[in-house]
Design brief:
Length: about 475
């Protein structure tokens, strides 16, 4: 399952990271823009420098051509003035070569490899392209053994504008200007960025803290909100409009929650009293009916002359006493469930108490097993006996009529807890009523009040324990877990 990690980060951290990333992105964009700007400036600078040097070179060549009357002269005549053309190299600190209109060299000091390989002659097609661009240069990138450089081919013209030759001018870029300027600028920019980053981190921290402060208060209040708690409204001064809207909605929800809690509590109390009244009435009505029938029967059959009057009165009294005891048991059961006493926790041996509680049942029906001979923990002895007898009695009554009941009681001690399991071979608990097992008045038996497991659950809760169960058609297992 994919998880969006950004969602796991708090809003305050998200704002902080976003501000830092925004600054970092701005710095990157400025650096990229700076790089391309200096690249453009470097190209413009070198192009200007090439134009200037080439124009100076042309003027010097034109001067030597006019001075020595070299127009339309043969190569041998040009060769007589090689020293003057060579002096130009020292004066302007450049290399160059001059070709005639047929591409043959008139003077050469430096040539690219492709011209040298072509017998020091410019290729015909390339020469034609140069002459067709009269007044403009043809630029070419070269990569020789001495490195990369640009070369310019331009047409030389006389005073009447007629071409008389081609100037080859190799230009080696002066990168010192752009590199020095760029390094200086970047050093300053790095320092500025460092200061900006520190300032941005501090500002982002306080801004994110200020923005998320209201939301953090809002979150804490929501965490503390509960149906059965006395909830407080949120009061934040100068809150942003969006946060203020949330706060107003929350405060309205608190008002509605208080009304709902009051109504729910009243409804639950009324429902509880109604359910308890129905159950008490039902349980009391059960013995009253046989008592009424007994009295009516006694009235019909009683005669002053009957010699068996003493026996009949004794039987009648016995029946009434049994039904009265039943009503007393009902009252006591409801009283125990409603006012279960606080457990008196003392250090005791769980194995011994459980074994004693099981002795009242048939020996053949109970299978007792323990992982340790003694398991000592703090519990209420009387209440634990009641838990054991209630669960075991329910387990015995869950077996089909005619079958031999078997209840396996197992104690298993762990590092920090002890588990007590009660497994029977009964018919199991139907799925439709499994959620009601621990509810008061729930019972699947034909007699009884259904308070046994409800009392058991309350006792286990008072001992900070836990009770669970698993069931199937082959039986039910209740597992009680207590802390050592």
């Amino acid at each position: 399952m994919k998880v969006n990690l950004f969602r796991l980060i708090s809003l305050r951290t998200q704002i902080f990271i976003s501000m830092i990333l925004l600054l970092f992105l701005a710095c990157i964009l400025i650096l990229v823009a700076t790089y391309f700007q200096y690249q453009k400036e470097s190209i413009d600078y070198n192009l200007f420098r090439l134009d200037r040097k080439e124009n100076q070179l042309k003027k010097q060549i034109d001067y030597l051509v006019d001075k020595n009357d070299l127009l339309k002269k043969s190569d041998s005549v040009w060769a007589q003035h090689q020293e003057e053309f060579s002096a130009v190299i020292k004066i302007h600190n450049v290399n160059y070569s001059v070709f005639n209109l047929e591409g043959k060299p008139l003077f050469k000091s430096f040539l690219p490899l492709k011209i040298i390989a072509n017998d020091y002659t410019i290729e015909e097609d390339f020469l034609k392209a140069i002459l067709e661009k009269s007044g403009r240069r043809v630029m070419e990138q070269n990569n020789d053994e001495i490195g990369k450089f640009q070369s310019s081919y331009s047409v030389l013209k006389d005073g009447f504008g007629d071409p008389y030759g081609v100037l080859f001018f190799p230009y080696f870029e002066d990168v010192s200007f752009s590199e020095n300027e760029l390094n200086t600028f970047l050093q300053s920019l790095y320092q500025i960025y460092l200061v900006m980053l520190v300032v941005a981190i501090v500002m982002a921290y306080f801004i994110s803290k200020y923005i998320s402060r209201s939301l953090e208060t809002f979150r804490q209040k929501i965490d503390q909100t509960g149906l059965l708690k006395e909830n407080e409204k949120i009061q934040i001064k100068n809150a942003p409009r969006d946060i203020a809207s949330l706060i107003n909605s929350y405060n309205k929800m608190i008002d509605e929650l208080e009304k709902s809690a009051t109504l729910l509590a009243r409804t639950q109390r009324e429902q509880a009293w109604q359910e308890m009244a129905k159950q008490v009435a039902h349980e009391i009505k059960n013995p009253l009916t046989p008592m009424r029938l007994t009295v009516q029967s006694f009235q019909r059959k009683f005669s002053n002359e009957d010699p068996d009057n003493d026996k009949k009165i004794e039987e009648f009294s016995q029946i009434l006493l049994e039904q009265i005891d039943t009503m007393s048991d009902v009252a006591n059961a409801f009283s125990d469930f409603a006012t279960l006493p606080k457990p008196k926790l003392i250090k005791a041996d769980l194995v011994e108490i459980t074994r004693r509680a099981l002795e009242i049942f048939e020996v053949d029906a109970i299978k007792f097993k323990t992982s340790d001979e003694k398991i000592r923990l703090r519990l209420d002895r009387t209440q634990w006996i009641r838990v054991t007898t209630n669960i075991v009695q329910n387990a015995l009554q869950a077996v089909k009529q005619g079958e031999q009941p078997i209840v396996k009681v197992t104690l298993e001690k762990g590092d920090k807890k002890v588990k007590i399991s009660f497994a029977d071979n009964g018919i199991g608990i139907p799925k439709s009523i499994q959620s009601k097992v621990f509810e008061p008045k729930f019972t699947t038996k034909s007699k009884g009040m259904g308070l046994g497991l409800g009392i058991v659950k309350n006792i286990i809760d008072l001992h900070n324990g836990k009770i669970e169960y698993s069931t199937s058609e082959k039986g039910t297992t209740f597992v009680v877990t207590l802390k050592l």
